[in-house]
From TrEMBL, chain A:
Transferase listed as a keyword: no
InterPro entries xref list: Ribophorin_I
Membrane topology reported for the UniProt record: Single-pass type I membrane protein
Keywords, ordered alphabetically: Endoplasmic reticulum, Membrane, Signal, Transmembrane, Transmembrane helix
Region entry Disordered, spans: 552-575
CC per GO annotation: oligosaccharyltransferase complex
Protein name: Dolichyl-diphosphooligosaccharide--protein glycosyltransferase subunit 1
Localization of this protein: Endoplasmic reticulum membrane
Record keyword Hydrolase present: no
Gene Ontology BP term (one): protein N-linked glycosylation via asparagine
Function comment: Subunit of the oligosaccharyl transferase (OST) complex that catalyzes the initial transfer of a defined glycan (Glc(3)Man(9)GlcNAc(2) in eukaryotes) from the lipid carrier dolichol-pyrophosphate to an asparagine residue within an Asn-X-Ser/Thr consensus motif in nascent polypeptide chains, the first step in protein N-glycosylation. N-glycosylation occurs cotranslationally and the complex associates with the Sec61 complex at the channel-forming translocon complex that mediates protein translocation across the endoplasmic reticulum (ER). All subunits are required for a maximal enzyme activity.
Subunit note: Component of the oligosaccharyltransferase (OST) complex.
TrEMBL record, chain B:
InterPro entries in alphabetical order: TMEM258/Ost5 (IPR007915)
Membrane-related topology note: Multi-pass membrane protein
Source organism superkingdom: Eukaryota
GO cellular component: oligosaccharyltransferase complex
Segments crossing the lipid bilayer: 25-44, 51-76
Protein name per UniProt: Dolichyl-diphosphooligosaccharide-protein glycosyltransferase subunit OST5
Main location: membrane
GO terms, biological process: protein N-linked glycosylation
Annotated compartments: Membrane
Role: Subunit of the oligosaccharyl transferase (OST) complex that catalyzes the initial transfer of a defined glycan (Glc(3)Man(9)GlcNAc(2) in eukaryotes) from the lipid carrier dolichol-pyrophosphate to an asparagine residue within an Asn-X-Ser/Thr consensus motif in nascent polypeptide chains, the first step in protein N-glycosylation. N-glycosylation occurs cotranslationally and the complex associates with the Sec61 complex at the channel-forming translocon complex that mediates protein translocation across the endoplasmic reticulum (ER). All subunits are required for a maximal enzyme activity.
Subunit structure of this chain's protein: Component of the oligosaccharyltransferase (OST) complex.
Length: 807, 77
């Protein structure tokens, strides 16, 4: 089905890559030995370093003056290569007009001569000679704090150290500069004091704020360093997210914005000196004492957030609490990890929730617009006092299947949003296949390195086109698939796979068996047939035309149009069935003693076997007399039933015989009942009537294998004539009866049999009655002996010693 | 025109789903029930007329019903 839909609906699929503003960050290559041209001078520089969180946040305000004779617009800020990649959210604005937005910034590769990498700030307008501009530069430095001591006890205080240069790294000469450090507390046990850099004490302390400088550095060469280290108490976890994967899934059908975030988290604080003590931890938790472990993460959720979940590698984490939003207030998801995360410990988990899409998605203005606008937070994340640093963030915006012409924009405000410039966010569009998708959902992926929770409030806007056909793809796919199943069910049902019709083209195994069992005199067999019999292989189609014994033409249909008892004219005038007539071999025994073994007792099964053995002889003799009557397998019916009793049409035997007649009717051929002996068939007139009447259109004949002496011979009897006689529609002296001697004989036998049976069972008769019966019997005998229509055998033709035909 | 301005300009046309979240289950269930009934009726008497009169609506109801039902189950497609 997927192939079908992909083929059919794929024709309507727009290109996924129709997005126009995707970015791939690149870095400028600088020549070896590169030095920034000395066209600027830093008149005054103030660096504010905030150490209140678990990462370093620096804000530098610098007054820059163009000392060149030409207008300049590229300002270089150097960092050593090992620090450069840990700087996140680098942003530069005009300090006096921050609302004008951030300046464009380029990143460079490391310069091989001094190992520095540069941020190249492109001023929006070239700075005229001797003009000044005040730059507000802000950035974070990740993983720059190291715990000292590196290992502590479970309830001990934690201390972090931070090393930096008293002189701000700069590519230009700086007249005056100072650095303000803001500590989380006043507990700063160790810090570097400078000597000779300035008059008076350095640093100057004021509460939790330490100020190094101001220094007069007009004579200090750019790049000069004066190392300073501070060590301060930070009994909080240093939460570092190695990787955050955030998925925003837009569903038009569900009217839902599903958010899922996967965190790989680590505490970069001091590791435990001893083994973890659950008792001590419980005690600390009860006291709510400060700890260097992550005890709980508070995650504010937007109003309207529902169905939150919190899963880690083991499964659902039940130690969480969700306080849903009330009205427009934010909800709060309080996550308590499965275990406290001490320094050096890792924890990975997954959280997710749903929002109504209406709060985040709008249809772009315009009549019948297929364009949509999505506005959502780029990063949310837990809100912790100690802050969180993200080494790598991958945000996937999963748009509906078929969305195209994707564009995105990161919102900028008057203040820093904690993100790098848009050209340093790696964005690409791909396809994501998930539930019920055929082509896959258009996915915009945004990748950012080195972020902090300063970016929590950042938002992005995505526009995309999504037509009605795109929207209907899912239901129409299922519709098409199911309709295909229905049509296939109908089409397959039309195919006729019945065995019956296929047999017209073949030969039944039973016929092959009959061919093999009853061999024929070699002189009577056509040349091809013995070869086939000996090889035992299947007969090829071109010899499937049935074969008849020579000199024994197939008897004409019993209905010779001389009477009205078999009115089927249509059947006989149409094409004869190539399979030949339907032939049923029938033998009957009156009871279980009706056999040739006087002292034997038989069960019903043995009697049926006995009758079948008689029919084998009958079948062979019939084959000699009439040849092979087509390819249709012969039927055999053995009956144990007294004479003169009716075989009901609804009995098993009656139905079997009727089925044979039905088959003959369906095949437009004749039906032949081959009877073993005069008594082979039931002698009940009503039975004959019940069989013949519903099948007046089917030629029916009895081949009675009986004796008028020895050997036995076959009498061909027209069944319908017999029935017509008994129903008094034909008189005994009718030419049709008189001319058909075998039929006439059969009728007479049936007429006399009841009398003979009666005489057998009622021997106490008067002499007159016995005489009458004897005469009657003799009359029949007379017929046998003096049938004038029968040509008497010529004695001279009989060769003495020659085998006589028959058994 | 920045994309944020496009967002602001579209403030009058928030996205309204075809079926609200609260109604997804009932709509999906009824459509699937209809699909089951008509599909079964078609299965009892497979004919070309049956495809048009029963199979077509069954497939259609099944397509939309399945989408709404999977949404109601929490898998927002």
């Amino acid at each position: 089905m997927r192939f079908f839909t992909a083929t059919v609906l794929g024709l309507l699929a727009p290109s996924l890559c129709a997005a126009t503003n995707l970015t791939t960050p690149s870095r400028l290559d600088l020549p070896s030995g590169f030095k920034p041209p000395q066209v600027f001078k830093n008149t005054n520089l103030v660096r504010n370093t905030n150490l209140e969180k678990s990462y370093v946040r620096e804000t530098v305000n610098v007054v820059v003056e163009n000392v060149d004779k030409k207008p300049q617009n590229d300002y270089y800020i150097p960092f050593s290569a090992e620090v450069f990649d840990r700087i996140g959210g680098f942003e530069v604005r005009d300090k006096k007009a921050p609302e004008k937005g951030r300046f464009n910034v380029d990143y460079t590769e490391a310069v091989s001569s001094d190992g520095n990498q540069y941020f190249v700030i492109h001023l929006p307008e070239p700075l005229a000679p001797k003009s000044q501009v005040t730059l507000g530069i802000s950035y974070s430095v990740l993983s720059s704090l190291s715990p000292l001591p590196a290992t502590i006890g479970q309830a001990d205080k934690q201390y972090l150290t931070y090393s930096f240069s008293a002189y701000m790294p700069s590519a230009y000469t700086t007249d005056t500069q100072k650095t303000k450090l803001k500590f989380p507390s006043t507990n700063v046990p160790d810090y570097t004091t400078t000597d000779g850099l300035k008059s008076g004490s350095d640093p100057e302390r004021k509460g939790a704020t330490y100020t190094y400088g101001p220094y007069n550095t007009a004579q200090v060469a750019p790049g000069t360093e004066h190392p300073i280290t501070v060590r301060y108490e930070f009994t909080k976890p240093v939460i570092t997210v190695n990787l955050l994967e955030r998925d925003l899934e837009v569903s038009h059908w569900g009217g839902n914005l599903a958010t899922e975030e996967r965190y790989w988290l680590r505490n970069n604080g001091s590791e435990l000196t001893n083994q973890f003590s659950r008792v001590e931890w419980t005690f600390t938790s009860y006291q709510k004492a400060p700890t260097s472990a992550v005890r709980e993460l508070a995650y504010p959720l937007l109003p309207g957030s529902v169905d939150p979940y919190f899963i880690d590698d083991i499964g659902n984490v039940s130690t969480s609490r969700y306080r849903p939003s009330v009205g427009r207030s934010a909800g709060s998801l309080e996550l308590k990890p499965r275990y406290p995360i001490f320094g050096g410990w890792n924890y990975s988990f997954r959280i997710g929730w749903n929002n109504n899409l209406a709060s985040f998605l709008r249809r772009a203005a315009g009549v019948d617009s297929d364009s949509y606008v999505l506005k959502a937070p780029l990063i949310e994340g837990p809100k912790m006092a100690e802050g969180i640093q993200y080494e790598r963030v991958i945000v996937r915006v999963v748009l509906p299947e078929g969305a195209h012409n994707v564009r995105f924009e990161i919102l900028e405000g008057a203040n820093s949003n904690g993100l790098p410039g848009a050209n340093h966010i790696h964005a690409h569009v791909s396809s994501l296949k998930t539930y019920m998708d055929t082509l896959g959902r258009t996915t915009l992926t945004l990748e950012v390195d080195s972020l902090t929770d300063e970016a929590r409030d950042s938002k992005f806007v995505v526009t995309y086109d999504h037509s009605m056909i795109d929207a209907l793809r899912k239901p129409l796919t299922i519709f098409a698939g199911l309709l295909t199943v229905f049509v296939a069910a109908w089409g397959i049902g039309k195919i006729d796979v019945s065995i019956k019709k296929r047999r017209v083209q073949g030969i039944s195994p039973i016929d092959l068996y009959v061919y093999n069992v009853f061999s024929f005199p070699a002189s009577n067999v056509p040349s091809k047939i013995p070869v086939i019999f000996k090889s035992g292989s299947l007969l090829p189609l071109n010899v499937l035309a049935y074969w008849q014994s020579p000199n024994k033409p197939r008897p004409p249909p019993v209905d010779d149009n001389t009477t009205q008892d078999s009115p089927s004219k249509v059947n006989l005038s149409s094409t004869r069935n190539p399979l030949g007539p339907v032939v049923v071999f029938i033998a009957r025994a009156s009871n279980l003693t009706d056999h040739s073994y006087p002292k034997a007792t038989m069960t019903a099964g043995q009697m049926h076997a006995y009758l079948r053995s008689l029919l084998v002889i009958t079948l062979a003799e019939h084959r000699k007399r009439f040849g092979v009557l087509g390819l249709r397998p012969h039927k055999i019916q053995t009956i144990i039933q007294p004479a003169q009793t009716r075989i009901s049409a609804v009995s098993r035997i009656g139905k079997y015989l009727a089925m044979a007649l039905e088959e003959a009717r369906a095949s437009k051929t004749e039906c032949i009942f081959v009877l073993h002996g005069w008594d082979g068939w039931t002698t009940d007139k009503m039975t004959i009537a019940e069989l013949c009447e519903p099948f007046r259109d089917v030629p029916l004949s009895f081949h009675v294998y009986a004796n008028r002496g020895t050997p036995r011979e076959f009498f061909e009897v027209n069944g319908h004539k017999v029935n017509a006689y008994f129903r008094h529609t034909v008189a005994a002296d009718d030419p049709a009866i008189v001319g058909d001697r075998s039929t006439a004989l059969f009728i007479r036998m049936l007429e006399v049999l009841p009398t003979l049976e009666y005489a057998k069972y009622y021997p106490v008769l008067s002499a007159a009655e016995r005489d009458t019966l004897a005469k009657y019997d003799k009359r029949i005998s007379g017929i046998y002996e003096h049938d004038e229509l029968e040509v008497p055998p010529k004695l001279e033709d009989a060769k003495p010693g020659a085998p006589r035909p028959g058994v | 025109m920045s994309l944020n301005e496009v967002w602001e300009a579209a403030s009058a046309t928030p996205f309204i789903p075809l079926i609200a979240k609260d109604s997804q289950f009932s709509v999906g269930f009824n459509l699937l029930l209809l699909a089951l009934v008509t599909g079964t009726l078609f299965g009892l008497n497979r004919s070309f007329l049956g495809i048009v009169s029963l199979g077509f609506p069954a497939a259609l109801a099944s397509g939309f019903g399945a989408v709404f039902m999977i949404c109601a189950a929490g898998v927002y497609v």
